[in-house]
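for the recovery benchmark. tokens below, seq after
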């Protein structure tokens, strides 16, 4: 989803460079396929699922769970997942946020940056440090009125340093053709665009909002905490690892480079020709996990309705140099994955094909 300082642009169900369009290479190394078996874990009725953000000290951070809060921490222990405590109360009052206008950037050390659009459209950043089941508010920035015209994507933020977030975002006045990523120094309230955009066949000056949304919608931005970032498209198998030098991008490795075939339309709308093959992702400081979704809930690839292909069972593990380390085939299909910080466990999120109930599988790596 792409968000604006003032409104939701559009939604869906559930960041000098040569072009990225070309043959799908899927990394630079081949690996043997490993078939691995998972263990079903008990899911509490209170677990609401929602967007997955990360695993911190044995707790899974997600949206949902309790209607009065935006985020829930669920304990992962004894082959179960149980919501235990919450963060950020929903609402428009002091210290409150609306979860559908709030995003998270999470570090491996339990530091959480919450980015939100307060009532009136002000761009605000809250900073938290986790201590057990409590959070210390390190800084609380009030809404930055200068950021009212920012377009940003849920799941599209990463911490660059102690005071700066890197995001898939742009000002409405500076959208494509030359800006897809930007950084925001939330301590000094300083915004800086990154001079780069995708090199495709569309007219670079035609319908800039639409072009931005085609690459931003449902995408993810990951960081290894050491200056490397990974962009993963939400529309096709398109992903790359990059570094920054000032406000310039250096693409170090293309993990997948399938083109996004879209028709830019007036305003923020675009029409995308989906292939029915896409990737979702999880990452930690060691590896990037790409999860291939190419099946419908019956386990078959749907050529006639490619948007129904929301499930998969294949996971590729890359290091932060872009080398494929493992190729895993899970024994159950699912729609999302989450790896823990030490690469010991992979969680697969799915639904029971018969009952439709939420299911979670744990895989030892």
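predicted aa per position
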């Amino acid at each position: 989803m792409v968000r604006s300082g003032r409104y939701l642009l559009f939604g869906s169900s559930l960041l000098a460079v040569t072009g990225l369009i070309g043959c799908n290479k899927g990394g630079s190394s081949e690996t043997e396929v490993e078939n691995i078996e998972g263990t079903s874990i008990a899911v509490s009725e209170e677990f609401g699922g929602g967007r997955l953000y990360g695993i911190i000290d044995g707790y899974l951070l997600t949206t949902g769970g309790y209607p009065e809060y935006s985020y829930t921490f669920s304990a992962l222990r004894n082959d179960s997942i149980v919501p235990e405590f919450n963060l950020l109360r929903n609402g428009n009052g002091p210290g409150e946020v609306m979860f559908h206008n709030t995003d998270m950037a999470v570090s491996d050390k339990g530091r959480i940056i919450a980015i939100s659009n307060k009532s009136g459209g002000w761009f605000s950043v809250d900073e938290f440090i986790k201590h057990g089941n409590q959070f210390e508010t390190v800084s609380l920035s009030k809404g930055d009125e200068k950021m009212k015209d920012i377009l940003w994507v849920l799941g599209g933020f990463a911490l660059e340093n102690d005071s700066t977030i890197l995001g898939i975002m742009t000002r409405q006045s500076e959208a494509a053709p030359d800006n897809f990523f930007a950084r925001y120094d939330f301590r000094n309230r300083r915004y800086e665009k990154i001079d780069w955009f995708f090199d495709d066949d569309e007219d670079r000056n035609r319908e800039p909002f639409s072009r931005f949304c085609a690459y931003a919608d449902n995408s993810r931005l990951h960081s290894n905490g050491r200056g490397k970032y990974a962009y993963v498209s939400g529309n096709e198998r398109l992903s790359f690892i990059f570094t920054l030098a000032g406000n310039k991008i250096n693409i170090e490795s293309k993990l997948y480079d399938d083109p996004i075939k879209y028709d830019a339309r007036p305003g923020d709308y675009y029409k995308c020709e989906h292939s029915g093959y896409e990737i979702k992702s999880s990452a930690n400081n060691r590896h990037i996990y790409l999860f291939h979704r190419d099946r419908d809930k019956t386990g078959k690839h749907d050529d006639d309705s490619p948007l129904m292909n929301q499930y998969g069972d294949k996971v590729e593990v890359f290091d932060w140099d872009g080398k494929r380390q493992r190729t895993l085939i899970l024994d159950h299909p699912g729609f999302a994955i989450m790896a823990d910080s030490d690469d010991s466990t992979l969680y697969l999120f799915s639904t029971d094909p018969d009952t439709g109930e939420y299911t979670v599988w744990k895989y030892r790596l």
